[in-house]
Design goal:
With 199 residues, this protein is mainly alpha-helical. The chain has 8 helices and no strands.
């Protein structure tokens, strides 16, 4: 792992802490954050990508729906076991739920591609250069992904973030195609925030 890796990890923490904790409107700073992180990932990283075949398209869609299914099951379980914590997740989603047209544009064109370029394409690939065990790589990169969302101070959201890191990290490790993780993440958010919102 080279020097920019640690600087970019520090940067993502600063940017996401500012997104979740500052008085600056969330969607403004979050969009700017992932625009900057995308540029950094492109500048310092290299990505695995290939043309998407029909079969791989279905795999990406399946992983996106799988992630939504995990969230759905997690919500059902949490409503029984941790109802008060689930209310806190609902409050958080009220803050980060896209409301305006430009929020959706930023989400699908900047934030989701930026998250995948940065977390899977850059961070996970750098960790992969250090560790040979694929499971270890996925877990460590997912923990980094989760840690940057610490500033929500919501354990259930952090658990959900870790699950996302594992699902998309596994997809990237398996298919070596950043386009598939971006597409899968898009499908998940389409279900989660547009078609069948859970909160």
């Amino acid at each position: 792992m080279h020097k920019p890796f640690y600087l970019l990890l520090l940067l993502v923490h600063i940017l996401l802490a500012t997104s979740f904790l500052s008085s600056i409107p969330f969607w403004v700073i979050f969009s700017i954050s992932f625009f900057l992180l995308s540029l950094a990932a492109i500048r310092f990283g290299t990505f695995d990508y290939k043309k998407i075949s029909v079969s791989k398209l279905f795999i990406a869609i399946f992983f996106g729906i799988l992630m939504y299914g995990l969230f759905f099951i997690g919500k059902l379980g949490s409503s029984l076991l941790f109802p008060n914590m689930l209310d806190e997740v609902a409050d958080l989603y009220m803050k980060i739920q896209p409301q305006l047209v430009w929020h959706f544009v930023a989400l699908f064109l900047i934030i989701i591609p930026g998250e995948e370029l940065f977390w899977r394409g850059y961070i996970q690939k750098n960790i992969e250069a250090k560790f040979e065990n694929k499971l270890v790589v996925i877990v460590i990169s997912s923990l980094f992904y989760t840690s940057a969302n610490f500033y929500t101070f919501n354990p259930l959201f952090l658990l959900a973030t870790f699950a996302g890191g594992v699902v998309w990290g596994t997809l990237y490790m398996w298919k070596r195609n950043i386009y598939l993780t971006i597409l899968s993440h898009l499908v998940f958010n389409l279900f989660m925030l547009v078609l069948f919102p859970l909160f």
